[in-house]
Amino acid sequence: MAAILSGTDAGMTGALDNCTLVVPSIGRPSLDVLLDALAGASGPRPAELVVVDDRLTGAPLRPDRAGLPPVRVVRTGGGGPARARNLGWRVARTEWIAFLDDDVVPDPDWYERLAADLAALPADVAGTQGRVRVPLPAGRRPTDWERGTAGLATSSWITADLAYRRAALAAVGGFDERFPRAFREDSDLALRVMDTGAGLTRGERWITHPVRPVDRWVSARVQAGNADDVLMRRLHGPDWRARADAAVGRRPRHLAVTGAALAALGLAVAGRPRAAALAALGWAAGTAEFAWARVAPGPRTRHEVTTMALTSAVIPPLATWHFLRGAVQHRDVPAWRGLPDLVLFDRDGTLVHDVPYNGDPALVRPVDGAREALDALRARGVRIGLVTNQSGVGRGLITRAQADAVNARVAELLGPFDTVQVCPHAPEDGCDCRKPAPGMVKAACAELDVAPARCVLIGDIAADVQAAAAAGAAGILVPTPVTRPEEVTAAAHRAPTLAEAVDDVLAGAW
To answer: 0.90 exceeded by the pTM?
Structure first.
């Protein structure tokens, strides 16, 4: 590796020039430790550092310090780790997205080794995972929590340090936001990426993942992850653990222990004391076995033994409850689609009130809720564009400069667009850009390097949704009084208002 690092400096620098580093955070003190390590590390810097503030409230995070890449802070409003990572990669515009958790410490040569890892990857590899060390205490055996954290060192596809091609994330819709915790959402993403035929590999860069201090009940709280395991099974089948390299847990034994406890209670209420005593004995034996399995490899201090005894009694019923809750909650789940990469809007009748052949910016009036709807998409990192037929230019009724001035006024009132596509032709010109032809949709996707299948077009007439379908995009019709009844009937997806159409997009219904 030393030869690689010394011999390909230009290539490595180029690799990080096309990489964005994304760090989701809830403002823990460990973020400062991470940022200090990144600021002091050697080697080339990524194009940008995006810190995603995933808190509901609080003063903005201020990660500025000398030595960091250019920093941008974006906020989710408390959407959880999957949504935070999705926002981070969606606002980025580089080929590679490198994720770090806010409680890790990268090695001093992390930038250099990340650059070397990326530069060495063939085109059919979609991601590269860093290597993790978990320091355990010297001079004593690790606690149950410390041993659990140490398992990160051998885990596969964890986003504590994982870089993905942005195109690979876009192709599968990013992280599945139905995983509410920092648990299984990274394994789910890896399986979906590999299902596309892309490969994942391990790099040579290293991070340290310290064991964070916790209270004695943390092992009980993490049993909520049993519901996420149910979701994994629903999405990826019964062999998902083998494919994700995930350890097999104790859930069958937890079910048996919980069943024994319930049987003991039921039999006692039914007036069958001897049978109840046998069931209670089975519960006690199962609980004792579980507690000893956790105590034996540990330090066996009074605090640890007490903690293991208490939590070993409550974990089996909690694990069973969350498993059953997940079985109900996730009994019917579709494949994750995520948000589109691009939402295109028709102009007249959709974003602004229709003024036929308008060449006067002063006549532009947005429809109700238009600015809020577009801002909702921007807040989630979704790019937006304008696609508008302007046959008045081709007919000589207005000039192209007037049409552009009206578009500029629309952007002034509704916020900037990532792409603006105008067809200046008359209907009889036979162009391939005038809707319902797909030209403008394809041009917008090509300009922003978006696959048409990850694009939505929202408009008010059949020509809009037909243009979307012809380009391979999704279409949503928002009828107005000028929309013909047969157009409404024919539309596969329609919404009563612009705001509701955008709500559908944000809910994944597109």
So the answer is: yes
